[in-house]
Amino acid sequence: MNSQVSLHDEPRTYIGKRQSRVEDEALLRGLGRYADDLAIPPGTLHAAVVRSPHAHARITRLVVDEALKRPGVRGVLTGEDVKLWASPFPVGVRQSMEHWCLAVDKVRHVGEPVAVVIAEDRYLAEDALEAVEVDYELLTPVVDPEAAADDEAPTLHEDVASNVVNDRHFRYGEPDTAFETAQRTLSLKVRYPRNACTPIECYVVVGQYDPAEGGYDVMANFQGPYALHSVMSRALQVPANRLRLRTPPDSGGSFGIKQGAFPYVVMMALAARKVGAPVKWVEDRLEHLQAASSATNRVTTIEAAFDDQGQVSALRFDQLDDCGAYLRAPEPATTYRMHGNLTGAYAIRHLEVRNRIVLTNKTPTGLNRGFGGPQVYFALERLMQRIAVELEIDPLDVIRRNLVPSDAFPYRCAAGALLDSGDYQRGIELGIEQGGLDELLARRDAARREGRRYGIGYTVAVEPSISNMGYITMAQTPEERRRAGLKNGAVSTATVSVDPMGGVSVHVSSTPQGQGHRTVAAQVVADVLGVSLESIRVDVELDTGKDAWSIASGNYSSRFAGAVAGAVHKAALKIHSRLVSIATQQWKVSAEDILFSEGRVYTQDGAHSISFHRLAGATHWAPGTLPESETGGLRETAFWTPAELTAPDEDERINSSLCYGFIFDYCGVAIDALTGRVEIDRYVTLHDAGRMLNPQLVDGQVRGAFAQAVGAALYEAFHYGPDGSFFSGTLADYLIPTTMEVPDPRILHMETPSPFTPLGAKGVGEGNNMSTPVCIANAVADALGDTVEPGDIELPLTPSKVRTLMGIEEPPRPEGVGEDSTETTAGGGSTLAASDDVEIPASPQRVFDSILDPDTLQAMIPGCHSLELTGENAYRADVTVGVGMIRARFDARVELTDLDPPRSLRLSGAGRSGMGDAEGAARIHLTEIEGGHTRLDYDYEVTIGGKIASVGGRMLSSASKMLIGQIFSRLSHQMSGAKVKRSLWQRIKHRLIDRGGDA
Amino acid sequence: MYIRHDDRHQVTLTLNGSERSAHAESRTQLCDFLRHQLGVTGTHVGCEHGVCGACTVIVDGRATRSCLMLAVQAEGRRVETVESLGEMEGLDDLQRAFRDHHALQCGFCTAGILMSCHEFLRRIPDPSEGEVRDMLSGHLCRCTGYTGIVQAVLAVARRRQNHREEEQ
Lengths: 999, 168
Description:
The complex is a heterodimer of chains A (about 1000) and B (about 170). By secondary structure, chain A is an alpha+beta fold. Chain A has four domains: about 40-140 and about 200-255 and about 255-285, Aldehyde oxidase/xanthine dehydrogenase, a/b hammerhead (Aldehyde Oxidoreductase, domain 3, Alpha-Beta Complex); about 295-470 and about 645-805, Aldehyde oxidase/xanthine dehydrogenase, molybdopterin binding domain (Aldehyde Oxidoreductase, domain 4), CATH 3.30.365; about 490-640, Aldehyde Oxidoreductase, domain 4, CATH 3.30.365; about 820-999, START domain (Alpha-D-Glucose-1,6-Bisphosphate, Chain A, domain 4), CATH 3.30.530. Helices cover about 30% and strands about 25% of the residues of chain A. Chain A is built from 25 helices and 35 strands. In chain A, strands 3-5-1-12-9-10-11 form a seven-stranded mixed sheet. Chain A has a seven-stranded antiparallel sheet with strand order 29-35-34-33-32-31-30. In chain A, helix 11 runs parallel beside helix 20, helix 16 packs parallel to helix 17 and helix 23 packs across helix 24 (about 955-975). Chain B is an alpha+beta fold. Chain B is built from five helices and five strands. Chain B has a five-stranded mixed sheet, sandwiched between helices. Chain B folds into two domains: about 10-85, Roll (Ubiquitin-like (UB roll)); about 95-165, Orthogonal Bundle (DNA polymerase, domain 1), CATH 1.10.150. At the A-B interface, helix 1 and helix 19 of A face helix 2, helix 3, helix 4 and helix 5 of B.
């Protein structure tokens, strides 16, 4: 490994140890100091927020007179005040959209703040909410991202022509060539839902205004990034040093979500100005769920070019990200956080990416643990699973064939990520061996023999940590970036000071939210200075008016272990080197001979020894005795930023993060046949997060992320109605998993230290949020088998969703009932007819030939288990068809007649099943169009009878339309995707010649 | 009797062994009363609709959601909060087990969980893992994945059981 891994020579008493946390005693005794526990200034008033009940409306009238007459009410802040004293928040893309901390003209999502009632206590403030009169003119809401992206859709922001506010296209390597020359291609469209890691503590903000200085002082459980401090100060129209932002000592969890507190920092600062008194606001759970923040929901079409062995040469991503009603900073960061490492753990050199950001009438999105990762891996790892199914090979083989080779690190990915260290192949082997994969496979076999639905899913992922502040500028064109000034880096800070009695104090600006930063910072300093852990006090409150901080300060992108602990180490080394220089001067020895341990500083030969507090104390008590270079006092602040985090280059490559951990997950799930509940039988998760500073805390992070990911995979989603109304406003609707749903994962570790961080550590807190949802989805897909359309595997896989995917199996024919007694079309059959067309990227001749090819025909028919030739262009087929919840297995005859190559033919079929009969025919016309492509027109008539017909005409009509449509879109997919191999092509030619001979 | 929402009542209760008294409106939730009138902020409020369990305290010996109880309903009752736990030297065995098993991270839900566990172990001194999980299912923790909490409760139960056996 690189010699930069400066593990130094200090004795490692604490680092790497399963050290209990210094935070715990106070928290366990109820002595934590969370935002709502802190003393507030005398005369502090309390706020409640009037929120929009509509998803999209114009505010036509807002009257506060009645509210002001209510008991205890001291003022109401409205959009008029905000327009007077503040500005809209700066936005990350060049569009004229305005996002204010309170609605000023329109509301664009349910729960959007409209006014703030300020009263003597919270109960009174809430009483007066109803007295604020707001009239709305309702506008048409747009909720679905694809519908919102349509040119005809109503726009949320009138000054912007489209709801698609950013559209960028990237190309790395030669993806077009790779796709053209590939043996096979496969495309998959997936949707990732809205969810959030919802902490148990909601937002808390206390705002104050100082008219003398013209400044604001706000305490909030905001978590960073502190790049947003400039967003807040600009909105408040004050210089950054006139917005003093302070955080409490303890935070009740965040997981990214408390980044979204920043608009309320501005709102409560203005509320305080409005009433001339401090104003406190504590968010309640309904406010939090409906309007705080959310992960970005995404629609992805992903496509791979690969060979028959499953080696992937190129990927195409088409990502449509729904950021909600406003593009709130730092969005569209969700889209670009993973940009450099979009190819995951794989050595895929050709990549094409299209990213579109669309706005809809939903809550604005923001940081959420895993940020961008679950969305990317859900598409990528589902596709890898589909490749394995398509090739009928072991999914693990597909994974192994594509991994970045072990000797390739540091490895530059196609889109620019520099994977710092790893040994992915070894990780897979370790995971298989220590996680008991063989046993799990045997459990699957046994379960399946018993007729149970059991599946195994796999995922590999790289877990990025320590974000490059420059990645967000990928939303801009290179030209826009140049004009705005290139951004990059990730500055972390830490201060270590030693007081006159030798006590060591540490300050970090990482605003922890429960991870145990105080413990790890103390571990690092204790080892460097050779003092006990107990003698060190770590302060994690951040006060932008007094403490060292920078834009990358805060708690996000798993930056603590790699970057912040590194800065702590650097600051401690500065103290260390000053003390060494004092000792060498006094003792006339060389620096290498001096050791620090057990509270003493001494020479190796034992000739000199002094207690740490005496030596350090001299800097305060007797500076005159020190070397000339000594200034007196003992306090060092270190800033650290890694050289590897450079700005995006001219070819749009970006090293979006400094470190990339490795994760290999697999799991076995059993599906309850009656309820559709997915039960996790075993979950194995292997992590390589570089050097582990405190393995107990690492396991804690893995378990926590895993539990949240189980929620995202199986239970949690923010649901909206078609009118944008919000359906998940309580914890009885938004289902966070409990002890009964979260199994204990088998956690495995390996350590390949990062060469780029001072302690060799990488982030580890977000990995399972990225890898676990798709791993569970892959297992469910494996359990359900190929009767389910791959794109229908959507999160969360709730019991009702899985039960619907399973369908109702056709019951066996009761004994004694002959085949003839099956209901026939006579019993109220219905006839449906329609027509449509589809474009196919191949010549009419090729299309015609393909339809006559039995392999293609089988692939065209959805749910076709087997196709058996019974005569010339006549087949017997075994087909499962689902309509709604009903699923029937048909014994069908399929015939191709009226052949007029390459212009037209007739495809007809008739089948019967225990659930009813169906009979239909489609007339197909092929016309050559531009580019040598074919337009396939078809019209069909279908007659359905028996139980299936009882489903109802409208559903039947749409189901048959979908089914027939699928036949031809599958043909189109066959023609554009998996290339007709030469041998098959020759086979078809032979068959044609044979037929020609017959005619 | 007709009680107006803004009528104020003197509420007297036994908090962690001491008699305490303060004023509350009829509608004041017990959790707000404890935190803001009596100053015991160790009890936290997570949802105010009885799902998350963070505000759990013990009222007359039974674990109770303090967000679903009014302060006036606690008149004359014995209320125990997280501040009552612990021994002279520091943490009690349950709290120590939580620390040793890394059963907390942000600690916001912990007070409520400790109170439920405390009451549960008084009733069921020798629980199975299933019983512990069932009891804990009334609490939401977003940080830990619950493993450490389950382990901590089982470890304390075992240790207490051993002590009892030794004493016999």
